[in-house]
Design brief:
Elements: H1 34-43, E1 45-50, H2 54-63, H3 65-68, E2 82-84, E3 96-99, H4 106-111, H5 115-124, E4 133-143, E5 151-154, E6 163-164, E7 168-174, E8 185-187, H6 221-225, E9 230-231, E10 238-242, E11 248-250, E12 259-268, E13 272-273, E14 298-300
Length: 306
Amino acid sequence: MTSTKDWSEVHEPSGDLFTPIKDPASWRPHFLTPQQLADYERDGFLNHVKVLTDDQCDRILHDYRWFMDPSKPHPRMDLLYEYHSNQSGDPSNVLIHALGHWRLTQLFHDLIFLPEVVTKASQLLVPGKESRVRFWHDQLFAKPAYHGGVVAWHQDYSYWTRTRPMQHLTVHIALEDQTEENGTIQYIPGSHRWTRGQGGPLPVLDFNFKDMEGIKTILTPEENAQFKPVMTKLKKGEASFHHPLSVHGSYGNRSDKPRRSAVLNYFADGTYSDTDEELLKGSVIGKGKPMGGQLYPVVYDPAWSR
C-alpha cells in the first residue's frame, strides 16, 4: 500500500535505502581525497564518484514510476514544490522535472542522507573546512527515449540568490548509464570563476528547453573562448558534484532508452533567507533569518565522525 506520510517530518534516514551509520569511524571512508578536492577546486566539478549500487538505483527507479506517468500520480503530489510532466511544452522535446519528492517516498527521503554524498558535501561547501550540511531541495530530471529534451547551460546559484551567502552544492546522480546519445550532463571547466558584480552569478536567462546556446550571448569574449564542454558519461550509480557557479547543461535524449537522474542540492548551515517571499512552495523564512526547520534538515555534522 502506498504511504501518504510526509517524510519531511523525519530528519534521519529510515534505514530503507542503506544502514544508518552509528560508529564515528565509519564516516571517514566516504570522504574525498586531497587530489579529488584539488580537482574540484580547479574545475568546479568532480565526476565519476560512485555513490549507489546497481540494486539501490533499481529500487529508486521503481519509485520513479510516480513521476513518469501523470495519469497514475502519487497520492501526495500536493507535497511537491514543482512538478512538470513536460517542462518544455514541446512533445518532441520532453523533460520531466520534479522538486520535493523526498517528501513522498521512503527511498527518496533516505537518499538525501546518503553517507557517500553528505560527507563529501561537508568538504566541498566551504573551501578549507568541513561544514555542517543542510538539505536545500531535490530534483528529478527524466528524458524519455527518442524525444527527451535539453537542459540549457546555466549556473545553479543564478536561481538561488534568495538564499545567502553562496555556500551551496549540487550532486547529480545517474540512475542509469549516461551517454552522449542520451544526453549526459556536461560541464565547462573553470566556469565557477565566471562572476558578475561582487562575485555574483551570471544573469538569469529565460530557461529554454530547445536551444542550448543562449548563455553565450551574455558571456565575455574570454569566457566564450573558454567554453569547452566536458561530457561526464556517468555510469549507473555514479555522481558528479558541482559548484553553484559551474556552468552545466545537457542535450536531448535520442537513444532508445530513458535517461533518469536524481539531483540533490545542499547548503552549509548558517545560510540565511534573503527574502520575505516563498523560498519553496509553502516555505517562508523571513529575510535575514537562518535556513532551518522541517524542510531544511541537517543531514551531516562533522561532529558525527569524531
